[in-house]
Amino acid sequence: MEGASSSQQVDESESAMFFTKEELNKLKSDFETGGVEKVKTLIEKKLVELDKTELNIAVTGETGTGKSTFINAMIGLQNTDPRAAKSGYKETTKEATGYPHPSQSNVRYWDLPGIGSVNFPAGEYFKKMKFEIYDFFIIISADRFKENEGKLAEEIKRLGKKFYFVRTKIDAVFYSMRMEGKKINEEEVLEDIWSECVNNLREVGILTPSVFLISSFIQDQYDFNRLNKTLEDDLPNIKKRIFVLAYPNRSVEIVQQKGRMLQKHIWMLATLSGAVGAVPIPGLSLACDVSILIGAIIHFRKCLCLDEASLQRLANITDKSVEELKAVVKAALLEKIDRHTITRLGWGAAVTVVSAFEVGLYSIPVIGSIFGAGSSFLMTYAILTDALKDLTDSAVRVVKVAYGID
Ligand SMILES: Nc1nc2c(ncn2[C@@H]2O[C@H](COP(=O)(O)OP(=O)(O)OP(=O)(O)O)[C@@H](O)[C@H]2O)c(=O)[nH]1
Ligand SMILES: [Mg+2]
Question: Which has the minimum average pLDDT: 41-45, 228-232, 260-264?
Fold first, then answer.
């Protein structure tokens, strides 16, 4: 094993990211006393926990500020999509409305009417909106932040949750200035608006607010990406994972980030793929659990937005047809995934030994002994790594076509 450099050290904590220190110690002692079989129980439990984890994001703000449009931008739906949060309508609902992510249903955005658009007292508002169920809050305004936003933030702080202020429709500010024939220094204008927002919030008692200036229509400009990155960084590991996997494929970087995130999952699935239920794969010398393989590959495909519905959504928000997007995906990846797909695409054919270091568990050396050549662990690891690479490469090509990136 090579010596660990500082960048590899970072990798270690990331790879073991789903486990707490105590769980990693238990993994080690279970392996020492009961081998792989005993370790499986803890890993199975962790995979179920990952599957069940939910992320509930509250989006609140006064009528017409752009809440629905923002939610749709975050989940990659056009405002006109039947599943989208309705935009541009006169707000009628006084209740929180949940919008599940179209393919990652454990991620849910909640559209909360602004505190000023309901005619019951603040205390009742907080109770009715079930503030405690949300992981964090996005407080939206299309102009000044006022007293109501301050009141909201105070209550959220009292509950020990995070909140972020988002000033929407920044594109419209520049549009108006251009129509007025003004000379624009974009940096300066953004700085002014940002300072004004921060000052407004200080006036209502929020001393160090996190403020982001965005356009929900132009997501590669202003603070849209910085907002996403901040939300991601502030989340605990298990929630960060589902937040990232729910990103619409807006850029090559996002696709690659998802690929790295999914890669960290593979050793757990490989550990489960032991003798139980093992079936030989045609053309491959080793048996492994095919249902684990197929399930994982289908999951990867969905997370990388290569399933039919995700491709259709991407076509809808770009000016490309779904056929143009499909044309750059390896054909077999678009079809039914079964054991023949694995041999057809040659996944796992060039199996090399995987080190505990690569998997990121070298801090528990004894686990290393299950990574050797000739194990179903290794075979599963190799097949899923190859499959993920093919899927990620195809997803990168799709994004490039969709957004006209060279
Ligand atoms: N230019 C521009 N217009 C936006 C933006 N976000 C929203 N809008 C427009 O603002 C209007 C209101 O947006 P909605 O998303 O419906 O606002 P809302 O807060 O959900 O409104 P209610 O549901 O009525 O409370 C719509 O016409 C949107 O198209 C943006 O970032 N830029
Ligand atoms: Mg709305």
Answer: 41-45
Q: How far is the CA of 142 from the centre of ligand 2 (A)?
A: 13
Distance of CA 127 from the midpoint of ligand 2 (Å): 21
Where are the chain's structural domains?
6-51+249-403, 53-245
Nearest ligand to the CA atom of 74: 1
Task: Using the mean position of ligand 1's atoms as its centre, give its distance from the Cα of residue 342 in Å.
Answer: 46
What distance in angstroms lies between residue 64's CA and the mean position of ligand 1's atoms? 5
Q: Which CATH code is given to the segment(s) 53-245? A: 3.40.50.300
Residue-wise pLDDT tens digits, 113-163: 888 888 888 888 888 888 889 999 999 999 989 888 988 999 999 999 999
Q: Per-residue pLDDT tens for 158-182?
A: 999 999 999 999 999 999 999 999 8
Query: Could you tell me if the CB of 64 is within 6 A of ligand 1?
Result: yes
Smallest-distance ligand from the CA of 71? 1
Return the ligand 1 atom nearest residue 117 CA: 25
Higher pLDDT, 27 or 299: 299
Q: Which of 20-29, 89-98, 99-108, 229-238 has the lowest mean pLDDT?
A: 89-98
Angstrom distance (rounded) from CA 355 to CA 23: 21
